[in-house]
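JOB MANIFEST
job_type = single_chain_structure
chain_count = 1
residues = 565
[input]
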Amino acid sequence: MSPTHRLVPREVRNYRTIFGVFLALLIGPITGCGVSQNGVVQVSTNAFDFGQVAVSTKARRIVVTVTNPGNAAVALASNVSGNTDFILNPSVSCPSSVAAGGSCSIVFTYLPSATGTATATLALTYSSAQKTATENVSITGTGVTLDAGDSLVTATNNPLVASYIYHPTSAGTVAVEFGLDTSYGRKTWAVPTPANGSALSIYVAGMQPNSTYHMRALFTAADGSVMPDTDHTFTTGTFNSEVLPKISVTTGTGTPQPGIELLDSTAGTDPNYLEAYATDLKGNLIWAYNIPDRQASTIIQPIKLLPNGHFLMILSYNSQSVATDGAPVPGTLDVLREIDLAGNPVREISADTLNTKLAAGKDGPLNCYVKDLDGNGSVEQLVTCFIHGQEYPFLGKDQLELALPGLKRSHLRYDEVAGKDIRYLFGNQLDDARVLHVDTLASLCLFNTGHGNFTPKALPPELQLSPVFSFTSLDTLATPHALLPKPVLHRWLAAGNFYGVQPYEGRYDAANPTIFTYDRDFHCIGAITQQPGEWRDAKRLQCRGRNLILLAQNNGELQFVVNGH
């Protein structure tokens, strides 16, 4: 029989793999504490030091966190002056305004071009209806030269993660072994040396708080010979005691597989308790992510370890509270974020812009032209989208030529079609084509209000991540619909995902089978998180007095789920 799972409102994942092996990562100290207030916003620090970084090696850090404690949005402008080795990362930094009660972080990359100390100034100008003010943050860093075979260990903005910088002597791979003494015992994964022969940085994690660790690089040359680096020591820090999880471990019979526990918390007594953390099998904390721009309602739902050692997570409000507290105010943190092992944002996208690639209903509709464009008797479908008022094909040159080989003869080079709209490519061929329009890209419900009229209601954000293929009711519907007024709170389960897409687009696999309800709007109240899949159907069953959900997936086993409450 297939495994049985219980519905849970949040996720706990068990990754059976040695933490240090898979959670080291190629990239490259946090300083400053306290809060500066200018009457408009609060900034976490007025001075940040990257510390020592090897020349031509990148170090990415959160330099400052900005908080707006007021009840109205505040405009924000950022200006950087000084050494150009400090590079602002706008795609993962504060936008042009900070919402009421909101926070955001500003991320910089330091790429030293020479040895010695470099400085820059970040000027943050805030404007509200009452006041305009500028807050300056001084940024420093020190470039150091590492000769071949030299190394350097520095802190990161995660107190449990070290950055090990090593300059290889030749081409090969580099790993770092570490432990509480010089017998080490744990080792990161092996990272290829840079093609240009420069130094590289590996994140080292899997260490307990307030402990001194020994670590050294292991360089493996192309001929298989291994050269150990000199021993370094690194002392970990910790997080504030009030945000640390209380963990107890009960050991049963048998021997567990080696690995760690990666947990996504469900509750805490402090508004800033750690939302995501990892422990060894004895319950010792060995990694955590403390959300720098967390708001009072922010939770992680869920967190996922990626093959490159990064983490992917949804940072959003607790959707279960919407039924009692109402919809979140504009500016509430609601993003899909990728972070590296030290907690630095790598990339993120907000829920509002997940569909920016297609942009239906924003710059213009999503169009589909249906016509036999090359006269070969086969009808083609040309999908287009609008960017700044111009209409462009959604697919690139290679994909278009699979259906329309003639394009290759008329436009041999990529630069001939780069940035060109559909009229340049097809001229008047589309004038007599059948055109289909899409103005809304969302999974939604249409309520029949009578006389041929329907009222659309979008499903919860958790169901906007992937196509939905199946719905099933978890309750006996007492009221036919009438927009399901209180006190009727009916529950449904929706399931989907779709893997069969072009590789550059990325498969749609982020949606778990999700339980949702309706109370003036649709709200997520739980999810089945134990197993991914392409879910194609769901049925509610009763067996020996128990409510079960039968889930069917594409190319996978049937799953039976206990209908929890």
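[summary]
The chain has five helices and 42 strands.
Residues 1-35, 477-488 have pLDDT under 50 and may be disordered.
exit_status = 0
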